[in-house]
Amino acid sequence: MTQTQPVETIPTSRPAPVAVPTAGQPYEYRRAPLVEPDWTRFPGWRHVTRDQWESAQWQRVNCVKNIKQLRTVLGDTVDETFYADLEADQKALATMSMLVPPQMLNTMVPFAPMSTEALLADPVRRYMIPVASDRRTDWPSHPYASRDSLHEHDMWVAEGLTHRYPTKVLAELLSTCPQYCGHCTRMDLVGNSTPAVDKLKLTLKPVDRYDAHITYLKAHPGVRDVVVSGGDVANVPWRNLESYLMRLLEIETIRDIRLATKALMGLPQHWLQPDVVEGLERVARTAARRGVNLAIHTHVNHAQSLTPLVAKAAQTALDVGVRDVRNQGVLMRGVNATSADLLDLCFALQGETGILPYYFYMCDMIPNAEHWRVPVWHAQQLQHDIMGYLPGYATPRIVCDVPFVGKRWVHMLTDYDRERGISYWTKNYRTSIESADLEALNKRYAYYDPIDTLPEAGQSWWHAHRDD
């Protein structure tokens, strides 16, 4: 008798795959094409045409300089509490007067309904239009904060010419900008006086100031690099700026020239004017012919600030022969002091505008800036967290500009008292005011974290020594 073998049943479908959980990445890149926000959403600009918007003259004429003008633009989209908050800041705390180009105001709350809450939370507003409630009341300023926190004025070798590094100088051609940032490191000199700060003034006529710079540079062949700044070079009449740059290019020992202008972002319309573009091309061609590196350094702190007009201005500069356009941002709480904010900004800079992420500075120890500043350990963590996402050449260095020392990568400190928030740094060169100081290279120089970020024991120590 033959036994029947059991028949194997073949399933007609595969079992559903079991989902395997993945950890994901701390940061997920998503390309975000640039968009010019609709300026007609503001009641005060409802009838502004594109031709007007893209006019540098219209932008300058319509800058917001006071609360009355801001009301005209915003209408009733924010309530009276905001204006009262702003007025309180301007009367007692602001170190910079208000000056906001329409281009910059248009990047605040760009794609959501405007409201008091939305404007208060906006990262661009937080540093361009600070209000009293932003600032700390326990420690509005660090005890060691100072008006000229980097001692640039002390290191002037001619009016407006700071010689801090052995081979580099900073040339401040003027003391105004097309826009005033609340955290400005040069708040001692730049902009109008405020109730909190009676500003220093440049006293020489521009032509005499420029002559003094050129005379010094010709007499000091060890200087090869000039940062041409202010203020902002976009406020120098172009023919005057071009003349100054051409004179620099005649000095054989000058090999690098960097133009510092936040206006590439804040007022890109300026850098797209035909006379400016044509003049920049003449300078760039002369620099290339003489083997001099000509670059533009701008200052963007948040991805919201990048629009197609900014990208067009940056690309135009590159098209006419400027070697590089680089960004130097500032780390600020409430603005960009997270790895996601920094990476969003860097990808937008490098991938969408052709601007190279270069530096992020820790906010300097100026008065009434403690609410913006971050501690050194936070900056170190941010440097760690942004590594590996961007191309190496486009990964910015986070630096601490240490008084009497200069820029140092945030991991270069020699000692760090985390409890009291005091880091110590060394240097390898003398500034122009230390030529006779034999011990300058053996000293340790201190930098201070914001006190509210310290552990309780550290905060207690500072309270006990507040009046020392």
Automatic annotation (TrEMBL):
Keywords: 4Fe-4S, Iron, Iron-sulfur, Metal-binding. Residues 1-22 are annotated as: Disordered. GO terms for molecular function: 4 iron, 4 sulfur cluster binding. PANTHER family: L-LYSINE 2,3-AMINOMUTASE AQ_1632-RELATED, LYSINE 2,3-AMINOMUTASE-RELATED. Residues 1-12 have a biased composition (Polar residues). It comes from Micromonospora sediminicola. InterPro entries: Aldolase_TIM, Lys_aminomutase/Glu_NH3_mut, rSAM_sf. This is L-lysine 2,3-aminomutase.
